[in-house]
Predict the 3D structure of the following.
Amino acid sequence: MLYWLTAFSDGGDLFNLFRYLTFRAGGAFFTALIFGFIFGKPLINLLKKKQKKGQPIREDGPQSHLETKAGTPTMGGLLILSALVFSTLMWARPDNIYVWVVLLVTVAFGAIGFADDYAKVSKQTVAGVSGRLRLALGFLIAGIASAVAAWMHPAELTNQLALPFFKDLLINLGYLFIPFAIIVIVGAANAVNLTDGLDGLAIMPVMIAAGTLGIIAYAVGRVDFTDYLDVHYVPGTGEILVFCAALIGGGLGFLWYNAPPAAVFMGDTGSLALGGALGAIAVVTKHEIVLAIVGGLFVVEALSVIIQVFYFKATGKRVFLMAPIHHHFEKKGWAEPQIVIRFWIVSLILALIGLATLKVR
């Protein structure tokens, strides 16, 4: 909304600042961060009051969690989403369709996660909304977002899959593009959801990935940058930088309370929403494959579960001591902060590799 203030600018005053994308991204970051600091504690107190027993802890998970995490409230993702949505609406251009697509996915997946968290807390069971219903709703939301993104893309990029490390190589997926994009969005949402198992484990890699995708969105949305970097120009995507900056600000505000020992868990409300957001950004910027690199930690977490399930069904044995893989390292004796920080380091390395794909072509 603040972008409308540019209508009062004569080109050399304070209002002119709102024309600059980087200025508005900075404003979005600090707005979301301050929002998180102001409303974090009141929200946690409200969640504690309403939930009483907190998030139900899985009995088949690490036994230490039954002792250290019992009674901790969930749905902390509401803090991130509130800060993210408020800040984005304040600072992003309201006429940018890509921002609305990403916001739609984020809020809609957050609603699915909220329903799941509410079912778990109200019934005090780890079984929330059925997996099939969650997937069906996720596919529907991702399908709408993917169709809109494909419709908005330039004609030469519509239904095309861009490959990193190659300058002009595009693969025409045709009618398969939308199913592929759906898998990217839904897969990203569920991969982040699986990663959210330790205090602070998911939120920092999400912020790192968001920062990386924000830089990519800014680059592919500027024709001068795309000419220099030899990447595909997607006009309008630069505005997603504002959304990513708001996500990082809101994420840091949440991490203040989620750092070990966590005062609140983000729950499915946060993890599904943030994962869906990353997937949506990758789809609209034509960097779906790069997301698999930048979000490689989430990919490994999801693959560890898939491998464990299929191998156990086939042989009756386990590949990992426990899945997702962060629990495997817990079983091996790694302390929780050790796992979390090392996974953060891995995420940062993968993000740098993902950024390198912009130039190594």
About this structure: The mean pLDDT is 91. The radius of gyration is 20 Å. The chain has one domain: 30-356. The CA atoms of residues 113 and 269 lie 4 Å apart.
